[in-house]
Amino acid sequence: MRLALLFLLLRALVSVVVVVVAKKDVHTKVRAEEDAVISDILKAHAEDDLYAVLRVRPTCSPKQLKKAYLNRARRVHPDVNSDMVHDAYEELASPEKRTNYDRERAERAAQKREMARKRRTRMWTRVSNLARGLWRYKLVVGLVYVVISTLLA
What we know:
About 90% of the residues lie in helices and about 0% in strands. The chain is mostly helical and about 150 residues long. Keywords: Signal.
């Protein structure tokens, strides 16, 4: 009888531990998702991309924009970075501000492409200069080889 009672008590204790661990896992998972959302927002804000902050496409409708804003604002804690989400929505909700933002965004993208093109050009210039130097080195080594082989023959 005592053994059966002890067994039931142990079983109840194990089930309580399992429930506590499961709740902790769920809490940890939710916290990890919140951290991932905040990380996405910070990354998008650092890149100065308001569309990425709200996770919408530049061609989205005002209705989709508002829905995305409400979704993001709900997922982010009010004390943490909600101002970034709110600022992004305010900027994109107004048609005039959105048009200006899209134009500035296109200009920044064009500047980035131009900088990347210049960087590639500089890199290939260095590579070609290095290759020319190697060909000269090979030519000199070849001439030295011919002169030495002629002298030894």
